[in-house]
Write a structure and sequence with these properties.
Distance between the termini: 21 Å
Oligomer: single chain
Shape: globular
Radius of gyration: 18 Å
Strand content: under 5%
CATH superfamily: Rhomboid-like
CATH topology: Rhomboid-like fold
Largest sheet: none
Mean pLDDT: 84
Length: 209
């Protein structure tokens, strides 16, 4: 089956990659993380550096800052794999809106687990996780059956959510003390938003069909 060119997905990859190229110098990476990363403590007016991006915009600007090439490459790979399929289903604006809302959902989840943290959260992982969640729901094979008052669709969503949360916890446990900290809550927050909004966005796109 031939899918249309995923223009929105390609645009997100290009913009994010160019932003990384600009800040890929070692000294600029740390500065960009402080100025444009999402820092939960800034919600209380703390840890704000001179020249920092307004706090309300940092969930978005954080997606443009990455710790290194591997961090960027993995996120962009997942964005291309899932984004092009989700864009085919939800359309250009659907995938962009889901990505942006996913960034905020990821930041909100990270804030919820550690509101006093002064460590910058950077990377597009949370926003990409929203597309991964939508992809899993829209294109994953449904295996469950309705159980009592729980519909097969609801159980499918719950199983996907449980699997993703379990995977994130295992990854976090596996690298504990051995590498960069994974923003587990952000990944979960983005993924759950993708699960919740995929079908409403799909119905909205084809509301007149």
């Amino acid at each position: 089956m031939q899918f249309p060119t995923p223009r929105a997905t390609i645009s997100l990859v290009v913009v994010t990659s160019v932003a990384w190229l600009i800040t890929s110098n070692g000294s600029l990476v740390d500065l960009a993380a402080v100025l444009a990363g999402f820092i939960p403590a800034r919600a209380q007016g703390l840890a704000a550096a001179p020249g920092a991006v307004p706090f309300v915009l940092t969930p978005l600007t954080a997606t443009l800052v990455h710790a290194g090439f591997v961090h960027l490459a993995f996120n962009m790979l997942m964005l291309v794999i899932c984004g092009r399929m989700v864009e085919a289903a939800l359309g250009r604006w659907g995938v962009v809106l889901l990505y942006l809302l996913g960034a905020y959902a990821a930041a909100a989840a990270q804030y919820a687990v550690d509101p006093a943290s002064t460590a910058p959260m950077v990377g597009a992982s949370g926003a990409v996780s929203a597309l991964v969640g939508a992809y899993a729901l829209l294109f994953g094979q449904r295996r469950g059956k309705a159980i009592g008052p729980f519909s097969a669709e609801l159980l499918h969503v719950l199983w996907l959510a449980a699997a993703w949360i379990g995977l994130q916890l295992l990854l976090n446990f596996a690298i504990a003390g051995e590498g960069p900290v994974i923003a587990t809550a952000a990944h979960v927050g983005g993924f759950l938003l993708g699960l919740l909004l995929a079908r409403p966005f799909l119905r909205f796109r084809y509301r007149k069909a």
